[in-house]
């Protein structure tokens, strides 16, 4: 079907903003031109892409399907433009990274600081998502590089995976549970305490559920949230025992890592990129720093 790229470009900006006026500002064209372009595209596709009212604009189911294909294409084109503009230098351009809040806060910060000091003209864009959601970002071309926990069910053969750190998960408790300090504790005993953990959308939660299944134990968490930093605070005030990566353990006497009788397998932090797409020079330099 012979459809001008500009029509898809207009559709993309309307779809992500759900506003004809916002799209016109980003595209530097009139609102009437935006409206006309959408009408032409809908006519060519013989599908209604938006429902319009005086108060809001919404995607139709057909519009949502089209956006799923147009958005990755737009991201790839923008990425190509940025790489051309860099012109083999690091005097500009953009570094797009996907990582969870935990990985950003407890691991990536010194690397981001160093990269910014060495290449201050490169714009750094960090998107905070779960490790599982980061995989989707990479697939859609929304990130040059993601740093995630591994094993990770969303990574596949099209990804190049570089190990940047090995770590072990630990159970952490506060002063309320002093009787657990300094001795070996079996997983079955820990299961009797209130368990504070990340929600099921995280690879850490999935990992802990697999461990409990391995030892034929029931895992019924007392609290499930999306922040390791908050889990540490909750353990500190005595709400239960939490499960976090060892690189997150704070250097304070208020909490302590429990010596576990069973040996848990190590996990990895990995940097991942799509092997079918060339890495920008900025992404290559950042990956070298991590390794």
Walk me through the structure.
This protein has 291 residues and is an alpha/beta fold. Helices cover 43% and strands 23% of the residues. The protein has 10 helices and 14 strands. A 5-stranded mixed sheet has the order 4-3-5-14-6, sandwiched between helices. Strands 10-9-11-7-12 form a 5-stranded mixed sheet, with helices on both faces. It has a two-stranded antiparallel sheet with strand order 1-2.
**What structural class is derived from the secondary structure elements?**
alpha/beta
Strand content: 15-25%
Averaged pLDDT? 90
- Tally of alpha and pi helices: 10
User: How many beta-strand runs?
Assistant: 14
Short summary:
The longest helix has 26 residues, at 61-86. This protein has ten helices and 14 strands.
Features:
single chain; 291 residues; alpha/beta; 5-stranded mixed sheet; 10 helices; 14 strands
Secondary structure topology:
Layout: H1 5-17, H2 20-27, H3 31-45, E1 50-52, E2 57-59, H4 61-86, E3 94-99, H5 101-118, E4 123-128, H6 131-139, E5 145-150, E6 159-167, E7 169-174, E8 184-185, H7 187-190, E9 195-198, H8 203-214, E10 223-225, H9 228-236, E11 241-245, E12 255-257, E13 259-260, E14 267-274, H10 281-290
Parallel strand pairs: 3-4, 3-5, 8-13, 9-10, 9-11
Antiparallel strand pairs: 1-2, 5-14, 6-14, 7-11, 7-12
């Amino acid at each position: 079907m012979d459809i001008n790229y500009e029509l898809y470009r207009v559709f993309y900006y309307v779809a992500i903003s759900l506003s004809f006026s916002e799209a016109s500002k980003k595209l530097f064209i009139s609102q009437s031109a935006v409206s006309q372009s959408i009408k032409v595209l809908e006519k060519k596709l013989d599908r209604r892409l938006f429902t319009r009212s005086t108060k809001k604009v919404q995607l139709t189911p057909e519009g949502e399907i089209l956006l799923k294909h147009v958005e990755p294409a737009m991201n790839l084109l923008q990425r190509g433009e940025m790489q051309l503009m860099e012109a083999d230098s690091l005097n500009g351009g953009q570094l797009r990274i996907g990582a969870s809040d935990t990985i950003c806060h407890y691991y990536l910060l010194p690397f981001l600081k160093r990269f910014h000091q060495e290449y201050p003209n490169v714009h750094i864009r960090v998107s905070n998502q779960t490790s599982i959601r980061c995989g989707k970002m990479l697939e859609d071309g929304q990130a040059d590089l993601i740093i995630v926990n591994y094993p990770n069910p969303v990574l596949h053969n099209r990804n190049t995976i570089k190990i940047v750190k090995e770590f072990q998960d630990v159970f952490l408790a506060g002063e309320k549970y002093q009787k657990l300090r300094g001795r070996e504790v079996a997983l079955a005993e820990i299961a009797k305490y209130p368990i504070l953990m990340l929600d099921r959308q995280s690879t850490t939660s999935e990992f802990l559920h697999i461990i409990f299944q391995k030892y034929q134990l029931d895992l019924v968490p007392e609290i499930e949230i999306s922040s390791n930093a908050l889990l540490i605070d909750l353990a500190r005030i005595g709400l239960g025992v939490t499960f976090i990566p060892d690189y997150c353990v704070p250097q304070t006497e208020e909490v302590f890592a429990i010596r576990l009788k069973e040996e848990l397998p190590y996990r990895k932090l990995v940097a991942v990129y799509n092997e079918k797409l060339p890495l920008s020079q900025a992404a290559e330099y950042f990956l070298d720093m991590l390794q």
